[in-house]
Amino acid sequence: MSYSIHTIESAPAASKPVLTDIEKAFGFIPNLSGVLAHSPLALTAYQAISGLIQEKAALTTVEQQLVMLAVSYENECTYCMAAHSLLAGMAKVPDAAIEALRKGALPEEPKWAALVRFARTMTAKRGWISEEEQQAFAAAGYNPTHTLDVVAIIALKTISNYVNHLAHTPLDPAFARQAWTKSA
Fold first, then answer.
1. pTM
2. Is 41 exposed, middle or buried (0-12, 13-18, 19+ CB in 10 A)?
3. Maximum distance among all Cα pairs of the chain, rounded to whole angstroms
4. Residue 184, pLDDT score
């Protein structure tokens, strides 16, 4: 199956206003959004969840980006790893932490390491987290609200990671300097 990258002009009518808003916000339409535009539902859901995470999450912007990188790494999404490497830098995530996540390692900051470990484990185990793993996350300073924020971010990244796998979404020029492939 082939997935074109829609523009505002080529997108289904219900996707056009969402793409217009995306272009206003970013100055361009990321290829992921152009692919998601095939389904007004998928595009709107992705944008809504993303906006809610930014507005309502108990996790800081830095922590959100750490989770997005951790989940995208676990799901081996080259597109999202590149995009979130750039976005994490813009959110003031230290370069060393970004580089660690790109290599599959943990950031040096203990609380962030616990967050990344938890997000990766949640993704790999599809939510079947042991009581011990939950307690370790809590011991690092996180609570049930943070836990459920991680679940929401996993839901968001599942949409984008899976769409990128299906469509083989090409990397946008804006993200090209952050191109990524998982090392063995």
1. 0.95
2. exposed
3. 51
4. 57
